[in-house]
Specification:
Layout (H helix, E strand, L loop, with lengths): L5 E9 L6 E3 L2 E4 L3 E3 L5 E8 L5 E8 L1 E3 L5 E3 L14 E4 L2 E4 L4 E8 L8 E11 L8 E2 L2 E2 L4 E19 L4 E12 L5 E11 L3 E10 L6 E11 L5 E7 L12 E7 L8 E8 L2
Parallel strand pairs: 1-15, 4-15
Antiparallel strand pairs: 2-3, 3-5, 5-11, 6-10, 6-12, 7-8, 9-11, 12-15, 13-14, 16-17, 17-20, 18-19, 18-21, 21-22
């Protein structure tokens, strides 16, 4: 009997976002870039935290945000959205890092005459270029008696890059606060984050229990929450923790949308839910 030579590689692509972005063996700081006013340059710091040499290609991609906070790739901008990459330069476009080696990527904004007032957004994408050898191959040559499937993770991460031009503004509000309990018994606070204006909004969410008497108690948070210009609202869910000894049948829940921890503290919006 003669065996057919069948070799299959399945590739998974992943993306995460944190204040300091990290996935696989790559850390990127900062995780968000905004060019406004006279700002024209930004340095991005990359660090290889893995045990082997890693190569990453760098490019621009376009993403659409949905009301649940998820993203999808697009080619044509939505209404109210403008792409930033025609006004951006990034170099180098590919980096190879030794274990523990840092690297600085330079991002430059080049404004052009006639730009419309408003916000332009693209996402800077870092894609792993690691070369994997599928199962059944020896030194890149196939084993004629092997039939195999290898699950190969190809890691990718993206960060938003925003260019703001001319007169811009935005306001934000919170509405539709509700308590919900999921199938696991987890108690969540849901709400709608509303945006108006010509630019996106970005900040942290903080949930507090306000008892009839006594000090507020922090019960939940979510950092780095954005609503981009293709949306006017975003549905949010905050997991409530630290509920021991708290009765959710009295008092209030307060939800606040604030500036980030590394900025001067500002409350952009807040709302309360009366508990009965």
């Amino acid at each position: 009997m003669q065996f057919k030579k069948i070799f299959i590689t399945v590739i998974f692509l992943g993306r995460l976002s944190f204040d300091t972005l990290a996935q696989g063996d790559l850390i990127i700081t900062p995780n968000r870039v905004v060019f406004e006013g006279r700002k024209l340059k930004e340095e991005l710091n990359l660090v290889n935290t893995g045990k082997g040499i890693a190569t990453y290609s760098v490019s621009f991609v376009q993403r659409r945000m949905h009301e649940d906070g998820s993203f999808e790739m697009i080619q044509v901008p939505d209404s109210g959205q403008m792409f930033a990459d025609p006004y951006l330069r990034i170099y180098p476009r590919q980096v190879t890092l030794e274990p523990g080696e840092p690297q600085v990527i330079m991002l430059q904004c080049r404004r052009k005459p006639g730009m419309k007032d408003g916000e332009y957004r693209s996402h800077l994408y870092f894609r792993s270029e690691k070369k994997y050898t599928p199962l059944g191959f020896k030194d890149s040559e196939p084993d004629p008696k092997s039939v195999s499937v290898q699950l190969t993770p190809i890691y990718g991460m993206s960060i938003p890059v925003i260019v703001r031009s001319g007169e811009v503004h935005a306001t934000v509000s919170l509405s539709d606060l509700k308590l919900e309990t999921d199938k696991t018994g987890q108690v969540n606070l849901t709400a709608v984050l509303n945006r108006k204006g010509t630019i996106s909004v970005y900040g942290n969410l903080k949930a507090e229990f306000l008892p009839a008497h006594g000090k507020p108690i922090s019960v939940g948070m979510a950092n780095g929450v954005a609503v981009y210009t293709n949306l006017y609202k975003r549905h949010i869910t905050i997991k409530l923790n630290n509920l021991a000894g708290i009765s959710l049948t009295s008092g209030k829940l307060k939800l606040s949308y604030t500036s980030r921890a590394d900025e001067q503290y500002v409350v952009y919006a807040d709302a309360e839910l009366n508990l009965q």
